[in-house]
Amino acid sequence: MLISSRNVELADEETSAKRLDQCLSCTGYVYGGTCKYCGCLVQIRTKIKDRVCPYPLTPKW
Question: Which pairs from 51-56 meet CB under 8 Å and 24+ separation?
Fold first, then answer.
């Protein structure tokens, strides 16, 4: 997936891949790509450098 933006800094490939793996195994991963805790598209959120996991109480990444 290619994301291009002038104002968003992206995480490196290794970091985004680790984040995505954690999301794919999470109970909050629903509807084939959405996070039930924040409503984001997981494949995009995991690539944005300054984002954190929205899992309640104990973020997974």
Answer: 53/19, 53/22, 53/23, 54/28, 55/26, 55/28
For 18, the enclosing helix (H) or strand (E) is helix 13-24
Residues linked to residue 35 through DSSP beta bridges, in sequence order: 29
Please, which residues bridge with residue 41 across strands? Answer: 34
Q: pLDDT tens, 34-50? A: 999 999 999 999 999 99
29 — phi, psi (to 5°)?
-80, 110
Mean pLDDT, residues 5-11: 83
3-state secondary structure of 52: coil
Output the pTM of the full model.
0.86
